[in-house]
């Protein structure tokens, strides 16, 4: 089965057909979905989705571009949610300097990234890291907080293969999604070539990042077959092998998933 490690089914773009789509996934071979929190609202919605659907699990966390909403009361609420049996990760957390260029905002991002890493340590959960245009600082915050002692994934990986190997050395998995199918995806293709299949997770980041031939359209976990097949082609193995190994990887990392 396909293990979807990163989706946002709380997004408005699923308003019309969310229930039908989520019910259909297991029939189409997508057996597990981790829905990732990003804002305060989406983290609350993520918990609701995990309550409503057997095959949906929750990651609780605040995305770097949403940290203005984060306060101690919500942080405490996330800590309480973390002990629930269907909360399987802290995420998505990290740094995003693409949208936020001001140094005081970036400073705040680093502060809450660190706090959420510590939340993962305290609650025994893995982390789902979002990092964009902030490779060096991401590595630095992770090292300051000894993130090598915490399992996790660098989701929607967008850096060099050298950087991927450095994260793998710290024990991290690399999340690969629709971008790998894009015609200009040279860097990510090189990364997939360079890293072991045992370190790759399948993810959509849906509704974003739809693979070819659906690039630009609404993405869903149904399209993970295109990502799986592209990875199989790059690695010279069968799609079944990619599906089997990435499921095993995801189950190792997100060990609370049944
Ligand atoms: Ni995401």
State the CATH superfamily name.
Answer: Metal-dependent hydrolases
Question: Could you name the CATH class?
Answer: Alpha Beta
Q: How helical, in percent, are the residues?
A: 40-55%
State the CATH architecture: Alpha-Beta Barrel
The computed structural class is alpha/beta
Give the integer mean of the pLDDT values.
98
Low-pLDDT runs: none
Bound molecules: nickel (II) ion
Number of domains: 1
**Strand arrangement across the biggest beta sheet:** 1-2-3-4-5-6-7-8
Biggest sheet layout:
8 strands, parallel
Strand fraction band?
A: 15-25%
Summarize this structure briefly.
With 258 residues, this protein is α/β, with parallel strands linked by helices.
Report what the structure shows.
There is one protein chain. The chain is α/β, with parallel strands linked by helices. The protein has a single domain, classed as Metal-dependent hydrolases (TIM Barrel). The chain is built from nine helices and eight strands. Strands 1-2-3-4-5-6-7-8 form an eight-stranded parallel beta sheet. 47% of the residues are buried. The structure holds nickel (II) ion. Nickel (II) ion binds next to loops.
Layout of SSEs?
Elements: E1 2-7, H1 18-27, E2 30-36, H2 40-52, E3 56-60, H3 72-82, E4 87-96, H4 103-123, E5 127-132, H5 135-144, E6 152-155, H6 161-169, E7 173-176, H7 186-194, E8 200-202, H8 224-235, H9 239-253
Parallel strand pairs: 1-2, 2-3, 3-4, 4-5, 5-6, 6-7, 7-8
Helix pairs in contact: 4-5, 6-7, 8-9
The structure holds nickel (II) ion (NI).
